[in-house]
């Protein structure tokens, strides 16, 4: 992935502009073809309408499927993060942490899934199918904000998120979307549930790795060729209309020629098609971007608060588990993840309070989905505050050993502890 | 800790949300105008149910004058909608646009007794119909057009009743034939379980209604005298070719 992006970024400004023109001419020519076949009879016209509607329904179906996969993988990313030790987030340790390796691998998968979705979500289609993708987008934002917070102790800016969602698509990939990633593989039974246990990790992951690696190899194969060709073409952004307007949906090879950005290769194609075409088709890269709507970003952050709650309760449990060994773990580094568990909980609390005051500043209508999530946000904050309170109060009354037992009695997973704490909190209100 | 969350970012979002709300308000205002003109045309075309047949062309001409206004209103809306954000605001005008499509379709039917073509529809509104699933600027979506056609079947079944009342016994037969053609057209579509599907399911009741009228007329031998006129029913398909 990264290789492709890096190497083609030089040619980007040149690529994007003529591309806009070609896609327009292509769509107009397609439009005209359909238009000219209209008006024959009602049956004929309606069968054309059927094709138009069907294209729309198919595309939506594809997007919904990808969204489901993205949601699934993003959830696993979050669980992986919860499994990670605070010290894993240090850059020198991150490569040895199994949980973080899993996160990285899932992240690569999710980006490929987004790449696939991005192809279908260009232009006005973004808002047309926005409702189908926004759930997945929020889940992904939740995972990424959590990761960013664990590493940097800050809220990830929207621009940073969007920078990840820029994809270069080769013609080959465009013609066969499965070559980006096949969808429907990530839905494993029982994987969407709660808890961040270690179950099934090894078996599951081996399979994942292998099919990810295949894709990576494929991407690297294309990348070097693309550089060598695209750098030879800067002077050649010739008139795109010179390429014959070919109707879409009729004939695949011709279709490729019109979508591809114009360059000298178009003329070369005519001179010596046998030699050039295979190379050309592999190297044409089209830039697909996904933007993140403000609403999705906010909703993703609202979801993050639930995860922060879980993290805080976990950390609180840790602070009681390891009172003796604390000092050995702590270095004086600037990274947030190095401070004591107590400090980390305090940091999470203040982070959450900041987020809440940010949300409180927004004037929202009651209908807005954001205001619906505000309740959850308040609840999460309340749970942490009550948990801290309980530790403080009972911590004074009980020896830490017993208190730890109390906190942990709900089970090893953070969620259960959170539930217990929340129960206490509500009683005392 | 205040550097943890950049509160200015929330301000920026607040601003952009306000801007979006303003855009929506502008569109709503423009769409309200469109809706008003729609109602004017509806009022004119409603008179076909009570007017003698000779007056129908005059009514259509009167309706056509208002379509000029509709063009202006659509241009107003189109100006506000940002490029590529058609579907973001689509729900604000989709209802009135469906109604406008219906009115154009009805006018065309009353004038020529055939289905409007895409080109003619574009002529009515001065905007293109989206045939490619790639609207970047304001266009009429194919769904809106199809919704307009469903509304037409509804209206025509009513017209069939009123034509009989007014003594025009051949019109129900022509309408029945036309509706069946439309229905078989709609049957070609693979509809999902959406609003269009629900409305399409209603077409058969319109057809049933017209068939009952034809039955009533036949049983009472009211059609025999006019059989010649029936033979001369304009063939929709042929006329569309020319």
Task: Name the features.
heterodimer, A: 429 residues, mainly alpha, Methane Monooxygenase Hydroxylase, Chain G, domain 1, two-stranded antiparallel ribbon, 18 helices, 69% helix, B: mainly alpha, 9 helices, 73% helix, disordered C terminus, Translin_fam (chain A)
Question: Concise description?
Answer:
Helix content of chain A is 69%, strand content 2%. Chain A is an all-alpha fold and 429 residues long.
Task: Characterise the protein shown here.
The complex is a heterodimer of chains A (429) and B (242). Chain A is mostly helical. Among the domains of chain A are: 36-181 and 284-292, Methane Monooxygenase Hydroxylase, Chain G, domain 1 (Up-down Bundle); 293-321 and 340-411, Translin, domain 2 (Methane Monooxygenase Hydroxylase, Chain G, domain 1, Up-down Bundle). Chain A is 69% helix and 2% strand. Chain A has a two-stranded antiparallel ribbon with strand order 1-2. In chain A, helix 6 packs parallel to helix 13 (294-321). Chain A is elongated and about 90 Å long. Chain B is an all-alpha fold and 242 residues long. Chain B has a single domain, classed as Up-down Bundle (Methane Monooxygenase Hydroxylase, Chain G, domain 1), CATH 1.20.58.2140. Chain B is built from nine helices and no strands. Chain B has helices at residues 7-46, 56-80, 86-112, 118-125, 142-165, 171-187, 195-219, 227-231, 236-241. Mean pLDDT of chain B is 86; it is low at 232-242. The interface between A and B is large, with 51 and 50 residues.
